[in-house]
Structure formats: C-alpha cells, structure tokens
UniProtKB/TrEMBL annotation:
This is O-acetylhomoserine aminocarboxypropyltransferase/cysteine synthase. It comes from the Bacteria. It comes from Oribacterium sinus. GO terms for biological process: cysteine biosynthetic process from serine; L-homocysteine biosynthetic process; transsulfuration. Keywords: Pyridoxal phosphate.
Length: 337
C-alpha cells in the first residue's frame, strides 16, 4: 500500500499483473479503487505490445510479483521494466517468495522492491512485517509533472522538495516522513528483533527450502496418485524457461500439485498428514500445507474454483527445512490413504 500510495493518489492509474497474492489483489482492486486509484490487471504472459497499450497519461507505476503466490508464475521483469520506463514510470515488484537470496530484481530493471517479511525473511512465523526497498535508480525529476509529491514542496514537511533535499533517497524519505507519520505501520522493537534473528539464517534456509522442494516435486512427478505438479525447478514446468533466466540458483520452497480423486481425495490426504501442518501460512521453516478447496475457498463450487484459478484437487505445499526423507515419507503415507 505504501509503495503504491507514495506516488499515486485519487485520479491516478496503475498497471498490475493479475498473478498476485489475493490480499494484494483485494487491496489494489477494491480498497485502493475506493480511494480513487484505478488499476488495469494484465496477464503476466501479455505481449510487450499489448502491455504498452495499457498505459494512460495518468499511469503512475507498474506492479507485479517476481514469483506469484499461489500461482507460482514468474514475472518477466525485463519486459515489464522496459514498458514502464518507456512510459516514464517505475516498476515495483514484490519479491517475497524468491527473497534477495534467489533474485535481485534491481539487476533486471525493477526500481522498487517490496517484501512481506512475515514469510521467508522472518522464517519462523513469529511476527508480521513488510519492507519497501528503493534502488534510487528511477529519475523522478525527469518526469516531474507525473510525480509532484516528490518534486514540488511538501507544505506538511517544512516545504521540502524531496528530490532536491534527498536525491536518490527521495521516494523512501517521503514514505517514512509522510506516510509512516500519518498512517503508522511502525514495527515494534520486539518484532524487529525477531526479523533480525531470522535474517541471519535466510541464506541457509532458502537453499534448503529449494533443495527439499525440488526433491519432493521430482518424487511427486512420478507418483501414481498425483495428477500434476507445478514447480519451476522441474524441467517440463511451464515456468522453467523464465526460472532459468531470473531464478538460476533456486526459487523457493512452495510447490503445488493435484491429488488423483479430486476434492474428496485431497481432503483425505490432508487429514492423513502427520508431519506437515495444515495452515494458511506459507514460507515457514516448518512444512505447511493448504487445500484451498476445503479451507480458504470452501464456499466455492468446482466451477467457481476453476474460474479463480484454483482446481478442486490443488494442494499447496510450502516445503520446510526438515529432513527431506521425512517430508517425502509423510506425503507418501498420506497419498497411500
Ligand atoms: C503473504 C504475502 C503478502 C502479504 O504479507 P503479510 O505480511 O501477510 O501482510 C504479500 N505478498 C506476498 C507475495 C505474500 O505471499
């Protein structure tokens, strides 16, 4: 919300990838719309030409997720950055799933990165948090008329012109002095401490998450009780080519797969798991699993589920850092049941 609202206000327009986290979709499509900010959602596979046709004179930014939760689609960062820059606006990407261990979006042209630190960065599900990271690379003064909040005096802050006083830090200083002052979202010292402790092992955990997820995905690919597996690390996955480019060393620990037998079999499978915890949370050190059709999306029938991009048999598994043989054994015994 801060990453967008810092440079867009009532009457402005945003372009966003449609493959994004549900909470972010609601924020942009409903809450921010009520505040007068309109958004055009585009398929991440959109052609460069079609993407360009979506820009309007009042477009202020482009937004997407590097690795979408839960669709697991990879954003072609270069394609989106090129279009955004051609139209004088920054590209903001949510890098929650790959984390900076596996992807550094600035190197591909993104200008601003957001993270839910609640996920891998914290790692242990003990505090909620978020971060906005500005590369300082976007030249706001070049498109001064589009970003008056950064390039004209802010009367609420001693008439400061952020680009003049803070240069490359203009965007992030405006956010802390202005939005955080007026709206809050200041993390408590205790929660900041938890995050700091978690970050110290991020590089070790991410490698293990990926290694474990890849091993489980490869195992499930051959399993007779599994109808499909989605994980960009698999060679025949629809996202594998983009993964080789943007996530060459790994992606994350989240995979999704279908259980033969549909919704009912999936419920039985979930009930039979012993090690994996059934929770909506993802990206935790412990293996967590979710069956949207019987939990978060329970109110929907099969047709509605498919329209929402969630098949009735879909299991989302956030593979943890436990011994991979224990994870595989748990999944196998539950599939057997
Ligand atoms: C969970 C999640 C969020 C929201 O984060 P919270 O910390 O739960 O508010 C945003 N983006 C992505 C990709 C997420 O997975």
């Amino acid at each position: 919300f801060y990453a967008i609202f810092n440079i867009a206000s009532a009457g402005d327009h945003v372009i966003a990838s449609s493959a994004i986290y549900g909470g972010t979709y609601n924020l942009i499509a409903k809450t921010m719309k009520n505040m007068g900010i309109e958004t055009t959602f585009v398929d991440p596979d959109i052609s460069a030409e079609d993407l360009e046709s979506k820009f309007r004179p009042n477009t202020k930014l482009v937004f997407g997720e590097v690795l979408a939760n839960p669709a697991l689609k990879i954003l072609d960062i270069k394609k989106f950055a090129k279009a955004a820059h051609k139209h004088g606006v920054p590209l903001i990407v949510d890098n929650t799933f790959p984390t900076p261990i596996f992807c550094r979006p600035f190197e591909w042209g993104a200008d601003i990165v957001t993270h839910s630190t609640t996920k891998y960065m914290n790692g242990f599900a003990n505090s909620v948090g978020g971060a906005v990271v500005d590369s300082g690379n976007f030249d706001w003064t070049k498109y001064s008329e589009k970003f008056p909040g950064l390039t004209t005096p802010d009367e609420t802050y001693h008439g400061t012109v952020y680009t003049e006083s803070f240069g490359k830090a203009a965007y992030i200083v405006k956010m802390t002095t202005n939005l955080m002052r007026d709206l809050g979202s200041i993390p408590s010292p205790q929660n900041s401490f938890y995050l700091g402790v978690g970050l110290e092992t991020l590089h070790l955990r991410m490698e293990r998450h990926y290694e474990n997820a890849l091993a489980l995905a490869k195992h499930l690919e051959k399993h007779p009780k599994v109808s499909w597996v989605s994980f960009s690390g698999l060679e025949n996955d629809s996202q594998h080519e983009l993964a080789k480019k943007y996530l060459p060393k790994g992606s994350c620990g989240v995979i999704s797969f279908g259980v033969v037998g549909g919704r009912e079999a999936a419920v039985k499978f979930m009930d039979s798991l012993k090690l994996a915890a059934i929770v909506t949370h993802v990206a935790d050190a412990r293996t967590c699993v979710l069956h949207p059709a019987s939990t978060t999306h329970r109110q929907m029938n099969d047709e509605e589920l498919l329209a929402a991009g969630v098949s009735p048999d879909l299991i989302r598994m956030s593979v943890g850092i436990e011994d991979v043989q224990d994870i595989i054994a748990d999944v196998d015994q539950a599939l057997e049941k």
